[in-house]
Design a protein that fits this description.
The longest helix is centred in the middle third of the chain and has 26 residues. This protein is α+β, with helices and mostly antiparallel strands. α4 packs antiparallel against α5. The protein contains seven helices and nine strands; from the N terminus they run αααααααβββββββββ.
């Protein structure tokens, strides 16, 4: 089954653990406009040109290809240019008592107006698809934003500092970990001895086992539904619900 524009955006943002407010700060697009995109409330965004511009910016931020989303919007929602209005208003017949010169002059003027209107509509329709939209309704953040590449807000928003993510050094010759997901779903990434073994959304009831000679690093999107057992010891929940966290377990080389 095909996924709609809004569902695609919401799924990508939640998979990366990004809050809508953080996405608004990174893209410099109002949070209400991003919410309108996710809800497919395109009428609130001020027209097709702005919708396509916001959609392109948000998709690139979420590391999605914007073109399929733009194409779906054009197919499902974009209003085609209306050329029929010109033909629906014929010129009323002029009274026969007017002079031929006056009749010809008025006819030429009417034809000129119709030609200019048609040229204007054609120019609008031929607008290049990849032209970036002028940020008319865009609200800039009150604080200066960093100019570096938006490294994905999932990494920025969930990246813990050292005080929140101490490395746990374990006695023994290896790290043996059992991870359980209970009570919901959570995005999980597991790095074993420097190699990423798993990354993605894990359903309720998931049970994973890993062994490392040096270290295991886990990153969890919703710690409230994830529990651990490391080297036979029950660690329990890895953090507060809804607050992404990273945990590192290493072997004590001197043991």
């Amino acid at each position: 089954m095909a996924t709609g524009i809004g569902e695609t955006l919401v799924a990508a943002r939640r998979q990366q653990g990004v809050a809508l407010s953080d996405a608004a700060a990174e893209t410099r697009v109002r949070e209400s406009y991003l919410a309108a995109l996710e809800e497919e409330d395109f009428a609130a965004l001020g027209g097709d040109v702005y919708v396509k511009g916001f959609l392109r910016s948000y998709a690139r931020f979420l590391r999605l290809d914007p073109e399929p989303l733009i194409a779906e919007y054009r197919t499902q929602y974009e209003r085609p240019d209306d050329f029929t209005g010109l033909a629906q208003h014929p010129v009323a017949p002029l009274p026969t008592e007017r002079s031929p010169a006056l009749v010809v002059g008025i006819g030429v003027a009417v034809i000129a107006v119709m030609v200019l209107a048609a040229i204007g509509l054609l120019n609008d329709r031929d607008e290049p698809q990849d032209t970036e939209v002028a940020p008319a309704p865009v609200e800039t953040a009150t604080q200066p934003l960093p100019t570096q590449r938006p490294t994905t807000t999932a990494e920025k928003a969930t990246e813990p500092d050292l005080s929140d993510d101490p490395t746990e050094v374990l006695a023994g010759d290896a790290v043996r970990m059992v991870l359980n997901v209970n009570g919901g779903t959570s995005w999980v990434r597991i790095v074993v001895d420097g190699a990423t073994e798993l990354e993605g959304e894990q359903p309720d009831g998931t049970r994973l086992r890993y062994r490392a000679d040096e270290s295991i690093v886990i990153r969890v999107g919703d710690p409230g539904v994830v529990s651990l057992r490391v080297n036979g010891q029950r660690v329990g929940s890895v953090g507060d619900p809804g607050i992404p966290v990273t945990k590192t377990f290493t072997v004590d080389e001197g043991a």
